[in-house]
Amino acid sequence: KYCDTGEEGILNTLWQRYENAIDKAEKKKSLQIFVLHFIQAFKDWEPHRIDQSVDRRSVSDDTVIGCSGGHPSEVILILVQEISHLTSFVTESSSCPESSANLSEQSTDLGLSTEVLPVLECFTIVTRSVHNCRVFSYYGGVQKVTALLKAAVVKLKTLTSLLATDEQLSNRTVENMRMMQKILVHIVTIISNFMDLEPAATRISRVVNSTDHTPSNNLATVTPNAIRRFVSDRNWQQKAIVSVMEAGGVNWLVELLRVIRRLNLKDQWTDLSLHFITLYALRSTISENTRAQNHFRSIGGLEVLLDGLGLPSSKFSVSKHSFVPSDERSDILQLQILSLEILREAVFGNVNNLQFLCENGRIHKFANSICWPAFMFQEFHQQKFLDPEVPNWKLDRQSTGNSPTLESFPSPVDILNTTEWNEYSVKLSKALCSFLLPPNEIRYCPGSTVTKISLPISLAYWEQCARWIIKILSTVFPCIKACASETELPNHIRILSNILQHYMLSTFKKVLISAPVLLKSFREEGLWDLIFSEKIFYFGSSLECIHQIVGETETQTDHFTDAAESTGYKSNLPDVNILQSEAISFLEFAATLNENTNNLPECSALLSALEHCTNGPGLVVTILKSFHVILKLATEQTLVSFKSLDVLTRVLKVACLQAQELRKAHPSDDFRGNGSQSNNVQMDSLDERIKNALTCVELAFNLFKEYVTISDLGRMIILHNANCIGCLFDLFQEENLRKHVLEQVLALYRLPPSSAQDHTAKLQLCSKYLETFTRAKEHEKNFAEMSIDLLVTLREIILIDRAYYQNLFRNGECFLHIVSLLNGTFDEAVGEQLVLNVLQTLTSLLAENDESKAAFRMLVGVGYQTLQSLLLDFCKWLPSRKLLDALLGMLVDGTFEINEKTTIKNEDVIILFLNVLQKSSTSLQHYGLVVLQQLLKGSITNRTYCFKAGLLSFLLDWFSVEEWEDTVIKIAELIQIIGGHSISGKDIRKMFALLRGEKISVKQKHSSLLLTSLSHMLKEKGPEAFFEFSGHDSGIEVKSPVQWPYSKGLSFCCWLRVESFPENGMMGLFSFFTENGKGCLAMLGKNTLVYELSP
Q1: Which residues does the UniProt record annotate as the domain Neurobeachin alpha-solenoid region (predicted)?
Q2: 410 torsion bin: left (phi>0), alpha (psi -120 to 50), beta (else)
Q3: What are the residues whose beta carbons fall under 8 Å from the beta carbon of 750, sequence distance 6 or more?
Q4: Where are the domains of the chain?
Q5: Alpha-carbon distance values, 655 to 648, 692, 702, 732 (Å)
Q6: CA-to-CA distance for 795 and 840, rounded, in angstroms?
Q7: Phi-psi domain of 646 (left: phi exceeds 0; alpha: psi -120 through 50; beta: other)
Q8: Mind listing the pLDDT tens digit for each residue in 43-92?
Q9: Beta-carbon neighbour count of residue 528 at 10 Å?
Q10: Coil, strand or helix: which one is 395?
Q11: Which residue of 174, 274, 752, 995 has the smallest Cβ count within 10 Å?
């Protein structure tokens, strides 16, 4: 009961006066006075907590003094009875069979009555208390207020029906509809308070006493995210909801939404506060209540909410030239968000309700409905170019301080404040994501760790909801893309698109970690194709447009901070925005899930993205890093995917494209990833894009190395992949990778050929290797260094299996490619290194291989005349000791050691060596002639080779022109040695011609030397006939038909002179066999003579 002091004392007196009144009119007047004072006294009243149970079946007899926790029960009883009177009056007015004019007049009388609104406003105060609600329910208040709701909705519906017959309604009829909506605001508020005792911060009853448009900042407080009042008994809310449902309250709330929608479609004024509080009341009914959700669907509530998401009225159409106040625009956007959130409450966890949204084209309807504000802005954006009466947009920095906005003008939908638009975009994104996750789990935290959550909902719902949202996004983003001109989106659409994308990626990631089994659904619905499409991933960067709009804004709300972060401000790479980084991160996360036994779809999507964005090296770097992570964390699955998709070839192609772009951008510069610069170009001077391109090339090659290192069959797969081999050699042109590329090539050559296919693959590898010489010479200024690296590696390859790779490279025409390297102009230092490496490589290719020597002789001529010409042209400076040693090594098929006894193995090098020696300095000539003299003195074989090669003739020609005395003496000694072994008539005639010649006759000493040499030749007693065997596949073989055994006997006599025994095997002496295989043969070992007789 009321206390006796203060405002309550006055109310107590007024209540006593009411109770003591006898006359009906006086009693009515006393009640009206009491009601008005009650409203004034308790307008801002908030009840204190009551420790009693709120589900007691009867009113307690205990009396509490004061209204801290509630109001007297007798007062509530009288007010409940007044509702019944009000219901009767409204029902009678709605069913009166009078004309429309009379009905309108009665309605006006009803609206002007002072009995209606004060009583209802009293109940908006009374229902703030748990105690009062308990008393209200006990006295049948729920049924009575629901009956009043029904009567009021029918009344408003009847007034709305007048619009079908009379398009020009009277002002009185319009006022009646306004007044009826105001009454409904109070009624719905009472029901809402009864079901959900929301705090004063979210109560709309405070602002409904004005007939003017409700301010936007007050409507904004009616949100589903408000914190509810603490109620000691949690069963109360469920019981309250059940009582409202059983009374039919939910049905009439849905019907009220239909009537409001009908008024909006007819461009009639509607009280937005009524729309808000009706939606909020419905939310209280269906939230976390499966029974209520099913009932809501059965009465058409889902369809009504879905309709409410769309364009509220045709007055928002671009074709209409009506002005919509900015506050109303903001409220309508909030109304859409609230409708979306309540639709989520009606669907969340309910598979049947969600299935309803998936049927009969509702997905497209839903997608179009949630995006109508953004598309409306775009329509107006287009209209401004077509309609000269529409003023141009311009920035207005006076209306909101530092926050840029667009100038207001009488247009259907004006551009909003940037902060408001970002807040709207964030709320819309969160509301859509909340279909998958609870709102408190939806937040945008880039870089944060995603944790697993547990929800009491079925996996079937999660799967169906994920598919549904992906289908919605697949509808929304193509529409957004259609708004663009080439690659430019309107700023407001870009903001909405980016924020929506960020939140959806974050939500999908959290869903996937909580339910990995949904990965299959993601794939089947084409989520990867959607994310990595031109509609999302590649459609420009969000950084530019956001910077233009909000770049100068210093202070923003929490939601706007999220939005700003989601637009790319924190990206470390110039051509990678945060959206792209998040998309790659999400795909990487999916590919490395423990439950993902086949990540081929994820690798395929990432690979397609890589190939699509080759013009952005920063983005390529990000994707390649992701590939590294995937290969590391999910090795087994990724190796299989890499093989199926031919990932390495495609990755190396991208790296080659990056390298080509670098060379095009800086054709005169030599970029080095390891810091060495031939042109002193420092890495610090390169811009960020070039650094990223270099990093991209290195990452791609490192991925290749990692793959072949991990996989047992990786290198064999690469060996048989011609395209991959080609890309590998393309990267050889990058100096920072050159050494590593050659290491990988060498590893491929080390693979043992186990089949004909392997041999063919290695032959192709040889051909590609040799083609690199030509490509380097044609396109690179520093091709000499590249060629040297290739030659060094080629010699290492020969060492793996000399005979096999000599033949393999010979079949690949290696000699032509190698000799062609000498056809150019070089500086002395680099040129000499190239020549030495060419000769050393030729030595390796020719050593101990007669077929290769024959092939090389056929190419460059007997005595290697072509090579001789190239070397002589190349050696415009004086040859060095290293060059002579290289030729000597070529002469003996290996490394020449002056202190060891050596046999000449390649007679074609003899004259080549002498020609170079003749061009050398005097000291080197002396060195070369001494070495040659040493070779001839100790070996008949060497003297034989030199004679056959024409050494004597060359020495005589040199003798005739040489000026240096010491050199002439050495030449004379060589003439004596070789002539003593064998001399031809031609050489004898040349010697006598020299003695008769004028030059030699002038130099008396030269004549004496030549005569002395000739004298010693005559004293030499060389063998009249002899066979010279090399020891390898040599000996005497009689091929003509012989008879065995010979009747008269057969003898074979010879002297043997062995200069050196082979390390392995034996030397053949002779082989005499008949056609039927009878005969004999003899072979000689180091300590053994083998004679074999076949009878």
Answers
A1: 599-1018
A2: beta
A3: 800
A4: 577-666+686-751, 1033-1094
A5: 10, 11, 11, 12
A6: 8
A7: left
A8: 888 877 554 443 433 444 456 666 777 788 888 888 888 888 888 877 77
A9: 21
A10: strand
A11: 752
